[in-house]
Amino acid sequence: MISGAEIMVKCLELEGVEIAFGYPGAAICPFYDFLYRSGIRHVLVREEQNAAHAASGYARSAGKPGVCIATSGPGATNLITGIATAYMDSIPLVAITGQVNSELLGRDVFQEADITGACEPFTKHSYLVKRAEDLPRVFKEAFHIASTGRPGPVLIDVPVDVQQAEIPEFHYPEKAQIIGYKPRTQGHAMQIRKAVQAIAQAKRPILCCGGGVVLAGAREELIAFAKKSGIPVCATMMGIGVVPMDSPHYLGMIGMHGRTSANRSMKEADLVVLCGARVGDRAVSAPQQIAEKALVIHIDIDPAEIGKNMPVDIPIVGDIRQVLCALTEEVENNVPQEWLDRTLEYKNSYPARGEPQEHSVEPRVFIRDLSAMMEENAILVADVGENQIWCARNFNVKEGRFLTSGGLGTMGYSVPAAIGAKLAKPHRQVVAVCGDGSFQMSMCELGTLCQEGVAVKIIVMENGVLGMVKEFQDRLYGRRHMATVLNGNPDFVQLAQAYGIPAARAESNAQAKELARRMLDEPGPFLLVCRVDPEVPSI
Amino acid sequence: MKYTLSVLVENQPGVLSKVSGLFARRGFNIDSLAVGVTEHPEISRMTIVVNGDEYIVEQVEKQLNKVIPVIKVKVLQPEAFISRELSLIKVNCSTKQRLEIMQIAQLMNAEIVDVTTNSLTLQLAATTDQTETCLSLLHPFGIKEICRAGTIALEKGSGVTAPSQKN
Q1: Beta partners for A41?
Q2: Per DSSP, which regions of A429-518 are E strands?
Q3: pLDDT (tens digit per residue) in A474-499
Q4: Which residue ranges make up each domain of chain A?
Q5: Minimal CB count within 10 Å: which of A87, A234, B36, B104?
């Protein structure tokens, strides 16, 4: 005989899960009892939301689904923000929650929450498992759904009695068979031909790459396509890092907080090739206007994204890698020199902003310095707020990664996500950059960092304000700084030291540079506080 | 404009909430939704009537296809399908009026399923238009209660909407 809980652990092992992030509770205890006897490493976070963020950082860094675990009721509801964050950025997660006894479901008993119901809008799929016999199929399907097609989080809710139930045998299915789930991977040949023709005729083409390129592992293919076609490239925030910032034909990030040069080029284009970008409002504020002027080719694995936010002339549904390979084979470089010159002129007419400061740290300058210091394959995790924009605009991703909560914009994401990213790639430098607002949303995770000995470096840009909101108040609300001043900050250096984490404070750019060197050389974790002038804008 | 969608789904708990939740979340308006099992007991068919434009119906179709237990979505072409709506109509009816209402029932192909001294209950299976006509004819007598099931529809001809694959 084998119990449901043991089956759950066996399924994880058979899926090759090495690390799971979680927080236990009564309704998930049977499962934890078998986790105790398994080789899977469990990372105990300090709050469940961070288990989901850490699993998300892990998934993005490892390229396979991250696993997070919580108990029923508040444990499960705390996970929601993390699950929603992963959903908006299409990150493969398998979230496992304990549930009250199935016979008590619906009676509002202690720590009961309808988590599959609550997570409906934020999950790719969810299961409430009523029989232990169903567990192997459910786990197989969950990992398959989470990691294929357009990735996303899948929730498995298991009542405690299902975990305890014993069944005669365990058999793990080799393949998931879901009648209604067959993502299309191959691009339609005729659509690809049409796209090639459109590219050949374009006078002012531009390529816009989004997070889908990263998710598809199509970085090399995109660079090859851009090179052969000669089309200049811009990126959405989630597409940062696909093309290195110093490539000659890279125009930078588009959008509300993007480069003016990239936005101008996009507006003047007569052909826009969207690759794995969902055209969110922060990336493209007026998609109709662009589509009126330009022919739009949209490549995405999710057919529902095509035409959702922007009218499209040539839709190509399929795996971006395959589609780009097919396109690269056919295209020729027909881009008029005049257009290239114009985009480069735009690019060069907006130089990077900020001057090094002596009495505070100019964050934009510092991020550029940090970028130059970090290893080629380093992972930078940006939080949400001004710090995110400073990083997005000034950090040069070479062979590494840029991770951030782009879709949901969840403050507090960076520290737990960096922990997950580092555990997936222990030999890479991983730096989390946050503000004093976002850091305080997940600073309890310093405990996790210590307990697990994760060598994540944390930079806190301390300006004493919730800077991004303050910017809105400055521009649109008569500079009335309602609830955006942080007066109760602790001494973050002392706080880190209380955890036994080495820490230092920088009061100038020169000092910040020096301390960053020390931070990167440190074998373990390190916390660097940068004193930032609250008037420094995000862009 | 109204669009009629025929949607095959896996017959399992929670599917209806996944589908109706999707409509609410994305701001799509449902005119009616009817669901029942098909010739395959593990598959149910939902007939959904949506009010919207071409953009909306395309989005509805694509978003429905993303719901994992949804097997097939078909937007039925106008004039190419048969649709029926079942209604139970309880109408005021004195003994004197009975004959007149029975005539309307006969005219509209409605069946009388319950009679009392002061009321008649009609059962009508008809298109939405016919149902509206019947209701307007009964209106002068005073309608006490109506219960209408959502529209159900099948494509005309011998072809079937097979549960083979998503579009």
Answers
A1: A19
A2: 430-435, 457-462, 503-506
A3: 999 999 999 999 999 999 999 999 99
A4: 2-167, 189-349, 363-531
A5: B36
DSSP category for residue A307: T
Q: Which of A120, A145, A180 sits opposite B10 (nearest CB)?
A: A180
Q: What is the pLDDT of residue B164?
A: 58
Whether residue B105 has pLDDT greater than 80: yes
Please state the ipTM of this predicted complex: 0.89
pLDDT tens figures, A93-108: 999 999 999 999 999 9
| Count of H-run helices and E-run strands, chain A | 22, 20
Q: Work out the minimum CA distance from A85 to partner chain B, whole angstroms.
A: 17
Number of domains present in the structure of chain B: 2
- Does the distance separating the beta carbons of B25 and A181 come in below 8 Å? no
Q: Distance between CA A429 and CA A396 in Å, rounded? A: 14
Give exposure, B78-103, as e/b (b: 16+ Cβ within 10 Å). eeebebbbbbbbbbebeeebeeebbe
- The superfamily CATH assigns to domain A2-167 is Thiamin diphosphate (ThDP)-binding fold, Pyr/PP domains (3.40.50.970)
* Cβ-proximal residues to A112 (8 Å cutoff; 6+ apart), any chain: A72, A73, A99, A100, A104, A105
Range of the domain at B72: 2-76
Q: In what order do the strands lie in the sheet with A271-275?
A: A250-253, A233-235, A205-209, A271-275, A295-300, A314-317
Residue B166 has pLDDT above 50, yes or no: no
Would you call B59 an interface residue with chain A, using a CB distance cutoff of 8 Å? Answer: yes
SS (H, E, C) A465-480: ECHHHHHHHHHHCCCC
Q: For residue A526, count other CB atoms closer than 10 A to its CB.
A: 23
User: Which of A120, A124, A180 is opposite residue B69, by nearest beta carbon?
Assistant: A180
On whether any CB of chain A is under 8 Å from the CB of B69, the answer is yes
pTM: 0.95
| Residues of chain B positioned with their CB less than 8 A from the CB of A304 | 59, 62-63, 65-66
Same domain, B6 and B69: yes
Determine whether domain A189-349 maps to CATH 3.30.930.10. Answer: no
The total of other beta-carbon atoms located within 10 Å of residue A485's CB is 12
